[in-house]
Amino acid sequence: MNAATSALLADLYELTMLQGYFEEGMDQTAVFEFFVRKLPANRNFLLAVGLEQALAFLEHFHFTAQDLQWLEETKRFQRGFLSYLGKLRLHCDVDAMPEGTAFFANEPILRVTGPLPQAQIVETRLMNLLNFQTTIASKAVRCVLAAPGRKLADFGLRRTHGAEAGMLAARASYLAGFTGTSNVLAGRLYDIPLFGTMAHSYIQAHDKEEDAFRRFAYANPDNVVFLLDTYDTETAAEKVVSLARLLARDFIRIQAVRLDSGDLAVHARRVREILDRGGLHEVRIFASGGLDEYKLQELARGGVPIDGFGVGTHMSTSSDAPFLDCAYKLEEYAGRARFKLSEGKVTWPGIKQVYRAYDSNGKMTFDTLTIKGEAEVRNALIQPYMRAGKRLRPARRLEESRQFVATEVNSLPVALRRLEPVEPYPVKVSRSLETLARAVGGPRFDAQ
Amino acid sequence: MNAATSALLADLYELTMLQGYFEEGMDQTAVFEFFVRKLPANRNFLLAVGLEQALAFLEHFHFTAQDLQWLEETKRFQRGFLSYLGKLRLHCDVDAMPEGTAFFANEPILRVTGPLPQAQIVETRLMNLLNFQTTIASKAVRCVLAAPGRKLADFGLRRTHGAEAGMLAARASYLAGFTGTSNVLAGRLYDIPLFGTMAHSYIQAHDKEEDAFRRFAYANPDNVVFLLDTYDTETAAEKVVSLARLLARDFIRIQAVRLDSGDLAVHARRVREILDRGGLHEVRIFASGGLDEYKLQELARGGVPIDGFGVGTHMSTSSDAPFLDCAYKLEEYAGRARFKLSEGKVTWPGIKQVYRAYDSNGKMTFDTLTIKGEAEVRNALIQPYMRAGKRLRPARRLEESRQFVATEVNSLPVALRRLEPVEPYPVKVSRSLETLARAVGGPRFDAQ
To answer: Can you tell me whether residue B328 is helix, strand or coil?
Structure first.
């Protein structure tokens, strides 16, 4: 069973609500929007990611005969309803921000419009896909900003939360500007460049470190990166210098060495010196081991001679903010704006659009959150992607999305690119949206 | 493609190392152990979970023809090596702590013994499975300890890191003592009780809240739980009281109401009073919304009349500690103990066993970390599970593991069951293990 594609990967309440809608004949058009209520403390902006997986999920959504049989066995559902579920295919419209768009609190990044049961049943999985990938891309881009000009490789698979998290973290971090991943399956599925050569165990399994280096080089002549810190980093660097002459005779080039523990700045400087003294100016230094954007920034600002980093756990779990305060909220049903008043959770009602203003240098200056269609300004961020269940265009190539992120990050106000929290980016609310909020929510609307 | 079962869900270095071992003919017996170096700051103990998934992964591991074809296209691997990979099946031995065992820093919870390439190639996925499920179970059991006598349901799927995380979090939290989950597929696959009825959107889609309640009850007569906080919690509770009479005539029983926002303690007391005044003493109160073990403890200690909780994001992402500082370390190859000296990462060498001592009340008093086979004491925690790739016993039923956890938690010293960090549980190191550590590691061994 592949959990990732099962229609049963949903909260039970989606099904019990649908049974209600089925009995009541409630299938008029509903509009749901996915948005983040509040940015995590250490995020000045977020990157919208997950649209491609969301669209694929909507395209292929269906209950299998086995699903239905099992649902019947639970005795929770009536025959007529289950027969309806068996025929259910999705014919929703989807409007969304393109993957990689920078966005802020209260701005919808995805809107689903369709018959109420169809737009409801997908809530859990859509949130699951958008929350995670947006979380990871928004963490990964901080690593990219912290280490300008350095190559970053995703090393996080061993500590991601399961298999799909490993796949989607590789994708989201590449999209955010990483150079590649260690995850072989992600390399295959998403065509992401792969990184990786040897673990400490490889060195340990050999009686002598120099034997491990030499044999690895002959077995993998096009991918020679030596891990230096199994016993003593600088001694290992000296061995690399000796070995280089032998390998050169067989036209094998040492590409890099990797440091994985200790004070990376100190070791990198010493190793650079040893390599340079040995004539190995071309051999790059790669570092890994518990890195996050703060350590990357410290090393990069210190001018430490490290050319690339393997960034694992902290990025691939977004360890300081492993989730977003996000919602998939019903905005309209049967042509009427819907709202709720639950304390601390009041939000902007209605079907919304976001417009973005830029200055003459192409830097973002402010966003306007409006009612959709109210005023046609330039730079509407939410665009059509799916109509009646069919994609309006083929999936965008990951490389294109990655390029889009690079442009997007360049257009951010410089202050927002800092790791430290800064004054929030201005998101203005249009007068008509304020009026609607007052009309439906009374004096208690207090979001923003 | 199902990422969860693919042999390519691995770090690239596993494959480049294997190509080295293949060329060198290095296939003698290797022993790897998985352990946690250091407990997260807010954990007094961990629960070992993930063994079942690890064993299933080892049993079924193989490369498909498509995998091999793609690997060949990468031009990283030689034909002979790929042909060897195609035939590779795992014949490893596995010894491990039973699922649900409480354990501490430096204690191996899983050992893989087999030909070096076989025991190496599975590193990434084994770590991925054990790290995540142990992380989640160890967070979930804190929620269970914080709210004694209350039912807890996993509501976390929307913010887990992808699909597999949602499935495994439902399983790990149930194992840790949760009562059930909202995740339908987890209910199906693991036979976990399901919870869930309606979202705010259900109320919003109806013009009147009382209509939503009534219609839901008739559509789902055996599963009537009303969500009260869409507009005004206490007003909604009054509507429930009125509706109860009508439903009773049709033999429909209201099981519970749910609160999802605001001051849960205040609302629960008011709602309890309204329900009791209306004669609805049997109707339970269920609460959800951003809960973690600290909020649960506060509510439980305050004697708030809440009978059950939906616990989502904080549990299912283990938000305060979303990963473990864990390793899968080569301990022995070709009969010789292996070690590494990398700064800050020195660990106990050799193949180990853990013995647990109990006092006369059945409470754990201390553990002893020893060299395997050195002294046969009672209560060896690491037990045989797989020999030459075959399971020694059928998979333990989840209910049994859940019962085992309950017993295990009961045997913990009382102080360790607190949410606050306490004096670490004593893990003694045997003299022979100390001697081995000094012998192979010199004076720099300083782990523990």
So the answer is: strand
